[in-house]
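Practice set, problem 2.
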Amino acid sequence: MASNSRSIPRWFDTFLWGNTVALSWMWGLGLFFSVQFTIQFGIFGLLSFAIPNAIGLWAFGLITHHLARRQAGSESLANLFSAWSRPFRLVFFLYQILAITLTIFALIRYAWQPLDLRPEALYLPLTMLVALTAAILFGEEFNIRRIKWSHGAIFVILAVAVAIVLQAPSVIGSGAPKVEISPATAIDWNFLGFAVPIIVGFLLGPWLDLQQWQRAIQMHRERVSVAGAYAIGSFEFFLMLVFHGFMANWAMSQGAEQYLRNGLAPYKYGHDSVMRLLFDSASAHPWIFGAYCVFLAGCILTTLDSGYIALRWFLQSSVRSSKNALLAFVPQGLVTSPIPAFILAGIVALAGAALKIEIEYFMIFYATFFVGYSALAIARSYVNTSASAIPQVKMFCLGGLAVVIFAYGYFLRYPAFMIIASMLPLAYVIWLLFKPTSGEDFTHGAEELNAPASDASPASHEIVAPSSHQQNPLAPPSDGSPLQSIGGHFDGKWFVHSFVATYADTNSVGNVYFGMYAMWVGKTRELFFNRVMPKFNLKNTPFFILTRSFEHKFIRETREFETVSVRIKIGSYNRKFVILQHEIYDSSNKLLGKGSQSLLFVSSADYHMIDLPVEVATAFMAHT
């Protein structure tokens, strides 16, 4: 895709993309936990939080830059992501929804609740609705190609706001009580209990963030250096974390310790300390308080609108490639819209804020549950495998176990449990990749059932049918129907039609004429349709089934009086198209040819293309 950004200097384009990378990653977790970690462990703690966070973002850019250049073309990274991300789609969705929920929660809990406006039952839902509508508005207005410009304008506003807020130490606090804070610089178990999960979680975190993948793909399309933009973005992000942590450290020196509170876990919480201190000084210094509010609002907005755009992109691509027939019953606009997901995230965030829980309860999942998936995703970027599955049940169980172990360590204040929980998914992925039977973990159940027996003879050089087809075509069908039903029969998911080739099927030299193979497949397809949709009637049907494309690979020839078996099955389908696969065998089970065809559907009234009809989806579901 040609980019219209080439009219501006390349360095400026790279900066714009780096800026939107930084702002999209400045979500609720980094924004407010930088304050909390600084309160707990001082400037040393702030750097321990900010450096791994920035390095993880930068490393993501470097690696995706390398992956994009493994193949030529501006779509190389998009194609890689489309194939690579397929087994991680549910995890991508959960990761993004949790990030959106956490960000809305942080806005309500740490930026609005400190204002103590009553009644909360009125103001908290209104705050949630403002966040949702602003995110949806900006997400609809600015797509991924234009978002760098809107974020560029917001960057200017944030820069001014930060410059104003930085005046606070020189103009606020002359009469406030001074509290000497001794930064905790000792690397003890309490510090490691937080630091290790932070390092593990943030070094791997960007790999499951749809916002970052969408940005990297668009940068590569526009011929912008992904590595260069992420280097700029990670540095800007680091500076923003340091700024907010510095303000937290200053606030504690000005008496913000009075704002610390107890929670369910045995820790002192002060994510909103800066907000409370500046709010108390708002009457004397309204500009500083207002600038700080602008800073928080800008960081929240640039995360939520990025999440909206990325989620819409993800849902649209998922629906296009989905084989789930149930999606055909739901309006496409509803399935591909991020609005329902945002509403759900807003409701959960509102409930969490009303219960006055803390952001750490959301963070647990990023330090444990998602770690294994991120590590496996990185490994599978470099390990070539034909498997399109991951051991979902095992990964989910390990992630859930890690969450529980971490929760015990956090609430009991036992740091060793927190460290073990964050390392457990990482260790399991290493074991999963290198154990002797690792291939079995990346195999579909159907592949295991169809796999040849371990004592099977060595494969010959002949091309033969898979083991599930290793039966005489004249043998009784597996579904118990009469021997060689003239209407065909089902063998598992395959519909089989067998017959004897005759003189009319051959050419002048006695071989079967090449066009007859397509005729045989067409006849088998008609018999298949008749079997699965016996009530279909051309006189009153509201739709027609048309052939969009047909392809066939000829492997060997056959002659007259040879028994031929044509097998056809549903390969895949989505909202618009159905792919049928076919194979043709002789009586010796030798493969004569194979191929596929694509079907589409049109209205019988005006021949306009329509979605997959409900009748077809229902008939096909039992045979996929």
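Problem 2, part (b): a different protein.
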Amino acid sequence: MQKIGIGYEDYREFIDSDMYFVDKTLLIRDVIEKGGKTTLFTRPRRFGKTLALSMLRTFFELEYDRDGNIIEKKRYFEGKKIMEAGEDILSKMGKYPVIKLSLKSAKQPDFRLAGLRLRDEIVSEFRRHGYLRDSKKLDAEEKQALNPFFSPLPDLQILDEAKAFAEIGRYATSLKVLSDCLAKHHETKVIILLDEYDVPLENAYFTGFYDEMTGFIRSLFESALKTNDALELAVVTGCLRISRESIFTGLNNLEINLIHGESFGEYFGFTQQETEDMLIAYGLKDKIGQVRDWYDGYLFGKAEVYNPWSVIKYVKDHRESPEAFPRPYWSNTSSNSIIKELVYKADEDMKKDLERLIEGGTIEKRIHEDITYGDIDQSEDNLWNFLYFTGYMKKVSERFEDDKIYLTMCIPNREVRSIYSDQISTWFEKIVKNTDRQELYQAVISKDTDRIAGIFTALLEKSISTFDCIESFYHGFALSMLLGMPAYEVRSNREEGLGRPEIILYPVRPKDPAYIFELKVRKKFNEMQDGIEEAFTQIRDRKYEEGVLEDGYIGAVSFAVCFCKKSCILELYSQKK
């Protein structure tokens, strides 16, 4: 079997190492025939954008070996679909100088470090074209313009903030300089490939220097993509479209392909057939249904696709261990900051939307194509926009009203649903941990069941109903609320008497009683008293209190507790006896 290329992003490595490759080479044809002067592709993280740009570079780039001979590119595409695209397309193979730049290294804690990392990436690309310094086709003035970008880099540690900003700023027009020199040297125009263009912007938004980073990226793009006569075509990839006014100022030659665009849908992500072919190739045909439930469900244009990263990881893991459980692989690679924003700021309406989604329902929201990270706090709709464009939502249908687009959306699959659930669980745990529980502790000691029930209910009202009727949720909730009660040790499901009570508070001081909590869950409010009665029966028949007393404690107080949705009732067992 062919090696599965986990973590590989260089197209040539797939070919040279004979790794399993899902053939997306017709993207090359469509970029030429359907793309603009500059084409922007927005797709979620880990959907093959970097590999796609590497493939484009391999196809287009004019390269020489150490002896000065042109490197033949056909061997990288033998047997691939692009070889049937016709001579007009194939004649462009290996004919252009290429500038390829990734912006993902700019994910840094401040503008100074982020900008300097971008500078390092740019310098590295200049050095890749270091032969220009000896070019006989460039005059002295042109070489002089190049030289600063080949110079030794100042030590990051000795730059103060002002000098660092100045150092960063002089690279804003660097790609234009490199384009002009490459075009003159090779006597043909240049192709520019820019990967992960919005990573610096997302990072800057969440770390507090969005305006500075936006200004730098705008200047870089204006010079490279707007006022560049040396440009043949450019391809830019990212997760979000950032508004034209913010980044792509005046760039009239920009062709934007968003996830709901009509073209290019099948090139990012695996189609149903591609997924089935891979599973069959690795002896996992019987797993097709499971993979569909977990990783399918994305709709890009008219193409329904699977998450390619998750499919690849699934195949690798299950090739070695066929009975392993599916996992949310994507959650470990993608930034979940957007979901955190949504959950932390959720009001009652947004919580209802989240509940509906996690339960498998749909919501309808207006979609804005021109948004910025700076807009995220302006309205609830912006958060849903971000979730849609970053792959956390799927379009079910759309409608137009007064020139506005409204999408009906759902969660794509089980993998993404688990990400929502994990974030919501973490959010609720933080609410519980940050709650002052002194009132609860006093209510337990005074056996005030109404007060305990009121405290539990007030907190449950802040939760998400997706956890309703899941006993483990209520058990974890009650346990976390009771942890930390002064002079008590909390134990869960410890054997006492003839069974295992849900929660017991064991006293540190011998004069204090132990507190036993037996929990039940019901789906309907009119069944809650039945839950209390069941808890009483269990406390009595399994002799929980007798077991505690036999352990040497001088007293035991038992509470029967029943949860239903966001409500709670309690009763004392002693009042039942």
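Answer key, part (b): The chain has a mean pLDDT of 88. The two ends are 69 Å apart (CA to CA).
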